[in-house]
Amino acid sequence: MTFSTDSGFPLGSRYVAVANGSSYAYCSDAGLPSGTSDRTICAWVKTSSTANDQIFVSYGTASSGQAAQLYISSTGYVGVSGSGSGYGYATSSSAVNNGSWHHVGFTLSSSGTLATIYVDGAAVGSGSMTAWNTTLGGTLRLGEYFGGGSYYF
Fold it and tell me: Which of 12, 80, 105, 139 has the smallest C-beta neighbourhood within 10 Å, fewest atoms?
């Protein structure tokens, strides 16, 4: 992951992290929402890729229901999911892989059962989740799957 300026960035010419599809960054997940607490996770993204799912924010452990991740699917839709099968997911109603900057994010209700996806300030999808109970694993991953490995942004 490198840092450069992008004059097309909506907040002016700022330094932005540039992922190349095979890099990522880590930092501590201390202080992030855990258990079933409310949370909002968001990011500015710009992509035109139709490669594998591209995960840009993830944290938690790889055990079922104990992680949270925000990603763009291989079809260009914004998605949110927990770890393991049966813990639900939600996707946006339109694709964002058009080469333009988008502010994307999701909120999770306090019961950990309803996720709402936002793109450029508008709610564009939601989904029921089997109660997430996020366990902090020590690492917030930017550009990588919470279990490590592929799906780089």
Answer: 12
Q: Is pTM, for the whole model, over 0.85?
A: no
Q: Are 145 and 22 in contact (CB under 8 A)?
A: no
- Each residue's pLDDT, cut to its tens digit, for the chain (153 residues) gives 444 555 555 555 444 455 555 566 777 888 888 888 888 888 888 888 777 777 888 888 777 767 778 888 888 899 887 766 655 678 889 899 898 889 999 888 867 678 899 999 999 998 877 767 788 877 887 776 665 555 554
Residue type, 78: V
